[in-house]
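Hi support team,

I submitted a single chain yesterday and got back a structure, but I'm not sure I'm reading the token output correctly. Could someone confirm the output below corresponds to the sequence I sent? I've pasted both exactly as they appear in my results page.

Thanks,
R.
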Amino acid sequence: MKAQAVVARNIRRLRVGRRLSQEALAVDAGIDRTYVSRLERGRENPTVAVLEKLAIALDSEISEFFKMPLRGEAAPRPLPAGRRPGK
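Hi R., thanks for writing in. Yes, this is the structure output for that exact sequence:
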């Protein structure tokens, strides 16, 4: 798996694991939502500065973005669409 794909997968894994929308992550990291989308799809190469912002927003270490998935591990599923109840 290419490094860019690993980073993309892990950004999404961490975001979904924390139940954050792309918009919420973008706001917390101080970047554009469409940029988060492009990162998660492997369309952009983030700088170290952007990875640092994302790590802080996700309350994780930068090294988390480089973890290789286990053999046969499913890709992170998207969050359910729409607003969460009570919001």
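A quick pointer for reading it: The chain has four helices and no strands. Let us know if anything else looks off.

Best,
Support desk
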